[in-house]
Amino acid sequence: MSVVKGIAAPLEKYDGSSLRILIVHTRWNSSVVNELVKGTIDTMTKEHSVKSENITIQTVAGAFELPFATQRLIAASRLQATPNAAELFSTLGENTGPPPINSQTFDAVICIGVLIKGSTMHFEYISEAVSNGIMRVGLDSGIPCVFGVLSCLTDEQALERAGLGVSEKKHNHGIDWGHCAVELAIKNRRWITGEI
Ligand code: DLZ
């Protein structure tokens, strides 16, 4: 039987060497999440030449926090990219020193988490809130936000989708998210400059 499900190969090879990428991931279900983060980073650096120093990683407790953290981090990177940012930050935090300034805003964000259904309605509420929240942050900010959140009915499903399972069909979805982020970041740049 032929395979119907899944993503077709991209139409071109995307060069991610000039991109700045943000990964926000949860600490809930960390053994699975860490593998997904690794798959995402390996794909971007090895297959699209994204520089590891241009990948910023931030963690949050659980999936519910992903949209808020992503929105605030995008706002912070925009503030840091303003022309007088170094001056502005040098007046803050005398004891700790100013935070490092990076003048490039994020070209794409990948939000990574794993929700595993329990015996209450919690899973349903969080899944819906998180997917809507991440979509909203992307649309409101104009920065591509990749939905790297697995909603699994069992632990086994989560393991399979992080490439840690036992079946032949196991697959690390972080790989897809890495490809997706680079493609959309490059395309978004083109669209901004009117190239369609
Ligand atoms: C509370 C909770 C539960 C039960 N399950 C998960 C989960 O499977 N995956 C996940 O990322 N987070 C979970 N959380 C935590 C919530 O996402 C959130 O961190 C808390 O409700 C605090 O806002």
Brief overview:
This protein has helices at residues 30-48, 66-80, 85-90, 122-141, 155-161, 173-192, and strands spanning 21-26, 55-60, 108-116, 145-152.
Short descriptors:
single chain; 196 residues; alpha/beta; Rossmann fold; 15% strand; globular; binds ligand DLZ
Describe this structure in words.
The chain is α/β, with parallel strands linked by helices and 196 residues long. It has a single domain, classed as Lumazine/riboflavin synthase (Rossmann fold), CATH 3.40.50.960. Helices cover 44% and strands 15% of the residues. The chain is built from six helices and four strands; from the N terminus they run βαβααβαβαα. The chain has a four-stranded parallel β-sheet, sandwiched between helices. Helix 1 packs across helix 6 and helix 2 runs parallel beside helix 4. The longest helix is centred in the C-terminal third of the chain and has 20 residues. 34% of the residues are buried. The mean pLDDT is 92. Bound molecules: ligand DLZ. The site of ligand DLZ has 15 residues, from strand 3 and helix 4.
Secondary structure elements and their pairing?
Layout: E1 21-26, H1 30-48, E2 55-60, H2 66-80, H3 85-90, E3 108-116, H4 122-141, E4 145-152, H5 155-161, H6 173-192
Helix pairs in contact: 1-6, 2-4
The structure holds ligand DLZ.
The site of ligand DLZ has 15 residues, from strand 3 and helix 4.
